[in-house]
Design a protein that fits this description.
Strands 3-5-6-7-8-9-10-11-12-15-16-17-18-19-20-21 form a 16-stranded antiparallel β-barrel. The chain has a two-stranded antiparallel ribbon with strand order 13-14. The protein is built from 2 helices and 21 strands. It is globular. The protein has helices at residues 2-18, 156-161, and strands at 25-29, 46-50, 55-70, 73-74, 78-93, 96-105, 110-123, 126-134, 167-179, 182-191, 227-236, 240-250, 255-256, 259-260, 266-277, 284-294, 307-324, 327-342, 358-371, 374-386, 394-406. A hairpin with a 2-residue loop joins strand 13 and strand 14. The protein has a single domain (2-406), classed as Porin (Beta Barrel). The chain has 407 residues and is mainly beta. This is Porin. InterPro entries: Porin_dom_sf (IPR023614).
Length: 407
């Protein structure tokens, strides 16, 4: 019922804007004149402004074709409507603004409110945020818009180890400080948390993304204890941006109506992210890695890992920048993504042998950007995935071709 209401509301909003004279719409980039950090990604997007009103709308689309083989077996050609995301913002009053982000995944099979918060500025260093917030763990969770990336797939570590676009109802503070070539930013939130599904799921392993399937996290906290997420980021205009983040809290239901039924069990996540552009050759490098520690009950088998590690690095090299087919300053890029995830860091108690359950991938790519807001992407994936017993890894390889654009 909730999804139907959201869908009807979305259609009504589209109909409302279709009645507006297009001449009153003006595309703007919602960003400060000053340089930005990853924490600014929610506002650093192109919007359509309705003149003389505080309302702005925007969004992006991702769709692709892919043909992959795993150990020589393929499901054939696949066309995928990955996601349609719509964001709406409003300047409510002086230093008070609202932004929402609604995502339709897989042709509308899943509909989610990823972000819906009220921001109140008291001081550049002290700003309030409350509502449905996106937990700032790593960089990709906040800065995930498809048109910003040269790859059709999101990073494995950000989607299958960390829960990509992980958002919860919460409240907190954020702020920034500028000084010559330096920027310093921070975020700190208390929010909804994980639940027992991170160790009780169909994956039959420790799997943090399973918590996203629980809609009740927007209404109640399973443990009754808020999740804390904090991040500090520093950027030098000549060097790049470095971010350090932490997310942790109790995930299990350890008491019921005041009666203790279990000990408190925590999940703790540490992440580091970095991005830079090499000045002469304009090579853009970005990446992040994360460490996860989960207090798994001793009664669980060793396939439920209590430590996980993973990350990715993207390298993007512009090959050509010129006017092509009437598009000014269009860009042709050569890129490559390197990925690794270990869902179970450690060794078997009985044999001392390394526990498997890991994956690595190399993904070269060629992308064409007719404008900064639209990208065509051709990717080739070569991937090796090993099971928990360390058997010979399964090999996945194949091509994908896709388009992503803001609108």
């Amino acid at each position: 019922m909730r999804l139907k209401f959201l869908y009807i509301t979305f259609l009504f909003s589209l109909n409302f804007y279709s009645q507006i004279d297009p001449s009153l719409l003006k595309r703007t980039q919602k960003e400060s004149a000053k340089p930005t950090l990853n924490m600014d990604a929610v506002y650093n997007r192109p919007f359509l402004n309705i003149e003389k009103t505080p309302i702005a709308v925007g969004g992006y689309l991702e769709a692709n074709w892919q043909h992959l083989y795993t150990d020589g077996v393929s499901e054939g050609h696949q066309f995928q409507a990955r996601r349609l995301t719509v964001f709406m913002s409003s300047a409510i009053s002086k230093r008070v603004k609202f932004l929402s982000e609604i995502e339709f995944e897989d042709g509308g099979k899943e509909i989610a409110i990823e972000f819906a918060s009220v921001d109140v500025e008291f001081h550049p260093l002290v700003n309030f945020r409350g509502g449905i917030i996106m937990n700032p763990i790593g960089a990709f969770n906040q800065n995930h818009d498809g048109p910003k990336w040269e790859f059709t797939d999101r990073p494995i570590s950000a989607t299958q180890m960390l829960p990509s676009t992980f958002s919860n109802v919460g409240v907190g503070l954020f702020g920034k400080k500028y000084s010559n070539n330096w920027m310093l930013g921070y975020e700190a939130y208390l929010s909804g948390s994980f639940d027992n599904s991170i160790i009780e799921n169909i994956e039959n392993k420790t799997f943090l993304p399973a918590a996203k399937n629980n809609p009740d996290r927007f209404e109640e906290i399973n443990s009754g204890t808020p999740l804390f997420t904090g991040k500090i980021a520093i950027r030098n205009l000549k060097i790049g941006e470095l971010g350090l983040s932490y997310m942790g809290g109790v995930y299990n239901k350890y008491q019921d109506e005041g009666i203790i039924i279990d000990e408190k069990r925590r999940v703790d996540v540490f992440a580091i992210d970095f991005n830079t552009t090499l000045p002469k050759v304009k090579t853009f490098i970005t990446g992040e890695c994360a460490w996860i520690k989960v207090d798994v009950p001793s009664t669980y088998g060793q396939q439920f890992g209590n430590k996980q590690f993973g990350g990715f690095v993207d390298i993007v090299q512009p090959l050509l920048k010129k006017n092509i087919l009437g598009w000014e300053n269009s860009v042709l890029n050569l890129a490559c993504r390197l990925e690794y995830v270990d869902w179970n860091v450690g060794r078997f108690n009985e044999t001392g042998e390394n526990i498997g359950e890991d994956i690595w991938s190399v993904m070269p790519a060629l992308s064409f950007r007719p404008t900064a807001q639209t990208v065509f992407r051709l990717n080739y994936r070569f991937q090796k995935q090993q099971d928990i017993l360390g058997n010979p890894p399964a090999t996945t390889d194949g091509f994908s071709l896709g388009v992503s654009t803001y609108f």
